C-alpha cells in the first residue's frame, strides 16, 4: 500500500511542471505583497492537487477559474479545488486598506509653480472582487492619472494663498472624481488628503520676507499710534495744568486785591487824616522792600540791576496808578 502511494506521488511530481505557470498580470500584483497568488513548492502543490483543496488567507479573496473562465470568488478559509474538472486559482486579491502618495506639479493663478502632495487611501470591495481583479491592469497608474487631472484643473484657478486655505476643497474634488471613476472597477476610495503644497524655495523665502515686512509695518503703525496717544495726553495734561495754574493766579490776585482793600479801609478809619493814596503808597513801599528781600535771600537768584533811589518808589506807584486808571477808562468806554 505504501509503495502504491509513493508511486502515485512520484507520478504527480513528474506530471507537475517544474515552475508554476505565471498568473495573469493583475492590478493587485503591483499594489502589495498580498496581491499575488501564493505559490508553494512542488510537493505541497502535488498534495493540494491530490486532496483538491486550497487555502485562502484572512483579508484576502481568491479568484477561481474553470477552463480559463471566471467561476467564483473564494472567501478566506479552505476550499475544494477539483483540478480534474478544469478549476484553478487565477490569483488572490487583498482587501486591506492601501495608500498611494501622488506628487503633482502645477501652477497657481498667480503663476507660481507648486508641488501638491496627495495621499489616496483605497481598498478593493469584496462583493466586486472580480471587477477589481479583471478590469484594471494597473490600479495605481489609473488613480494617479485621475489625481493629476483634478489637481491640474483646480489649483490653476486659485492664487497661492487661496490654495493653502482651500486644501480641503481640493481634496474633496479629488475624492469625488476618484469615487465616481473607481467604483466601476470594484474599488472604494476611503479618504483623500492633500498632505502638502510645496512652492519653490525662492517663493517660500519671498513669502517669509513679505510676511516679516507686513508685521514690521504693523508694529511701526502701532508704535506711532502709541506715541500719538502719549503726546495727546501730555498736551491735554499741560493744558489742564495751565488752566488750573491760571485759576490759582487769578484767585491769588483777587485775594491780594481784597486784602489791600481791607487794609486801606482799616488804615483810613484808624488813622484820621490819611487818604487812600497815602495808604497805597505805604503798601507799595512795603511790597517793594519785601520783593527786594526775597531776591537777596534766594540762594539761586541771579544778579538783578534795577534803578534804586528814594524816588523809585514814587515812580513805581505812579506807574501802577496810571495803569489802573487807564484800565478803568477802557472798561467805561
From TrEMBL:
The name on file for this protein is: Hypersensitive induced reaction3
Q: Could you tell me which residue ranges the Band domain spans? A: 51-211
Q: Which CDD domains match?
A: SPFH_like_u4
Q: Which UniProt keyword terms apply here?
A: Coiled coil, Lipoprotein, Myristate
Q: Which residues form a coiled coil?
A: 160-236
Gene3D superfamilies according to UniProt: Band 7 domain
Protein purpose: Positive regulator of hypersensitive response (HR)-like cell death. May be involved in potassium ion channel regulation.
Q: Which InterPro entries match?
A: Band7/mec-2_domain, Band_7, Band_7/SPFH_dom_sf
The family database entries (Pfam families) matched by this protein are listed as: Band_7
- Record has Lipoprotein as a keyword: yes
Amino acid at each position: 500500500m505504501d509503495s502504491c502511494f509513493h508511486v502515485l506521488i512520484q507520478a504527480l511530481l513528474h506530471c507537475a511542471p517544474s515552475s508554476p505557470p505565471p498568473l495573469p498580470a493583475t492590478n493587485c500584483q503591483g499594489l502589495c505583497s498580498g496581491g499575488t497568488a501564493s505559490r508553494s513548492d512542488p510537493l505541497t502543490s502535488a498534495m493540494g492537487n491530490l486532496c483538491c483543496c486550497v487555502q485562502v488567507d484572512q483579508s484576502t479573496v481568491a479568484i477561481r477559474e474553470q477552463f480559463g473562465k471566471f467561476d467564483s470568488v473564494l472567501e478566506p478559509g479552505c476550499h475544494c479545488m477539483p483540478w480534474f474538472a478544469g478549476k484553478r486559482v487565477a490569483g488572490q486579491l487583498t482587501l486591506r486598506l492601501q495608500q498611494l502618495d501622488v506628487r503633482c506639479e502645477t501652477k497657481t493663478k498667480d503663476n507660481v509653480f507648486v508641488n501638491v502632495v496627495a495621499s489616496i487611501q483605497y481598498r478593493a470591495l469584496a462583493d466586486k472582487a472580480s471587477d477589481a481583479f479583471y478590469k484594471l491592469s494597473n490600479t495605481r497608474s489609473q488613480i494617479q492619472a485621475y489625481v493629476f487631472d483634478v489637481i491640474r484643473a483646480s489649483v490653476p484657478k486659485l492664487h497661492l494663498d487661496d490654495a493653502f486655505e482651500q486644501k480641503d476643497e481640493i481634496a474633496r474634488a479629488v475624492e469625488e472624481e476618484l469615487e465616481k471613476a473607481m467604483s466601476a472597477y470594484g474599488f472604494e476610495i476611503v479618504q483623500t488628503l492633500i498632505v502638502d503644497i510645496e512652492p519653490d524655495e525662492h517663493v517660500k523665502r519671498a513669502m517669509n520676507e513679505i510676511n516679516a515686512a507686513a508685521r514690521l509695518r504693523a508694529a511701526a503703525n502701532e508704535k506711532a499710534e502709541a506715541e500719538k496717544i502719549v503726546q495727546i495726553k501730555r498736551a491735554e495734561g499741560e493744558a489742564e495744568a495751565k488752566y488750573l495754574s491760571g485759576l490759582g493766579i487769578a484767585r491769588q490776585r483777587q485775594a491780594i486785591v481784597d486784602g489791600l482793600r481791607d487794609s486801606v479801609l482799616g488804615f483810613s478809619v484808624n488813622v484820621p487824616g490819611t487818604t487812600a493814596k497815602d495808604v497805597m503808597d505805604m503798601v507799595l513801599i512795603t511790597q517793594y522792600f519785601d520783593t527786594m528781600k526775597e531776591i537777596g535771600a534766594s540762594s539761586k537768584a541771579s544778579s538783578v540791576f534795577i534803578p534804586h533811589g528814594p524816588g523809585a518808589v514814587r515812580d513805581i506807584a505812579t506807574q501802577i496808578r496810571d495803569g489802573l486808571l487807564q484800565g478803568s477808562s477802557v472798561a467805561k468806554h
